[in-house]
Structure formats: C-alpha cells, structure tokens
Write a structure and sequence with these properties.
Layout: E1 5-8, H1 14-25, E2 29-34, H2 37-45, E3 50-53, H3 59-73
Parallel strand pairs: 1-2, 2-3
C-alpha cells in the first residue's frame, strides 16, 4: 500500500489521536489539527509531520490548515 498523506482534524481528541497514531505507525504522513497546543506538540513528538491549532468552526482557519498540510506534505490523499 502506498504511503499516504493525511490531514486529521480533531487529532488531539480520543478518536483523532488514535487515528493519527495508527496512520503514523503504518508509515503514513500525518498533519494534525486540534484546539490544544500542548497536545499538538505531543503529536509532533510522536511522528506527525506537522500540526496547527484550529477551531473547526472557523472556516478561514480550516482553509489555512488545509493549505498548510498540503505545503508540509506535498499534497493530500485524505482528510
């Protein structure tokens, strides 16, 4: 299976953090978003390519996160 490039919203929560860990363990690139900057740092420490604090109800912030993830990973295969 090709290594994918994934943007995970809510990566600091229960399901999002588990998904991020699984994707990283399978050698995929992961860019995580969440509201807690401290938890986002933990994602980086655990192998995520990048992260950004985002309130998912702020459409401009969401668009910026998408653009940042594309730039960090050279594209996206899934969100």
């Amino acid at each position: 299976m090709k290594n994918g490039r994934y943007l995970v919203f809510g990566a600091t929560g229960g399901i999002g953090s588990c998904l991020s860990e699984i994707l990283v363990s399978q050698q995929h690139q992961v860019f995580g978003t969440g509201r807690d900057a401290g938890k986002l740092q933990k994602l980086l420490d655990n192998g995520c390519v990048g992260s950004v604090a985002v309130d998912a109800t702020d459409w401009v912030a969401v668009q910026n996160a998408i653009q940042m993830s594309i730039e960090a990973m050279g594209g996206l295969d899934g969100v």
